[in-house]
Design brief:
Pnp Oxidase, Chain A; 8 strands; eight-stranded antiparallel sheet
Length: 166
Amino acid sequence: MTTDLLETHPKQAIHDQLESESAIMLEIEGVTDFMIPMAAKPDQETNTVWFFADRSSEIFSKFTSPSKARIIISSNKDKFWADIQGEIKESTNEEVIANKWSADVEAWYDKGKDDENLMLLAFVPKTAHASSSTTNPIKFSWQTAKAILNKQETPSISIQKSIDYA
């Protein structure tokens, strides 16, 4: 259960959610005017979230390395939300390109891994705030009923955690 994992191992909960999402939202200070959907390629061992980007695009042609950035995970299905702030920079790590490359990524680049517009971006989290709510409808209803009947002030159906990656 996501709430239990967030309570006991918050970094693992965030990593697992990044692994399960097909897209998250990315904002880069001075580059994006709005958050944009991107496919995250997390690496728990190096505490890095990798992104493939197109250097010739309107957005990434303005990118300067390093930059402050943030990513948002929003999963209504799993009842999990996180706002993660950190730094993003361009990387030339060929091992990561080889290990994170997939048919989904290749579809965006005419010349595959050798495409001159291929950018590999490394996002390193610094801080995060995550929230998770129970997905159990019986627990949700019971906690709501207790709050309505004044047995407790508010329903106890979620947890929030602040995480420092430093």
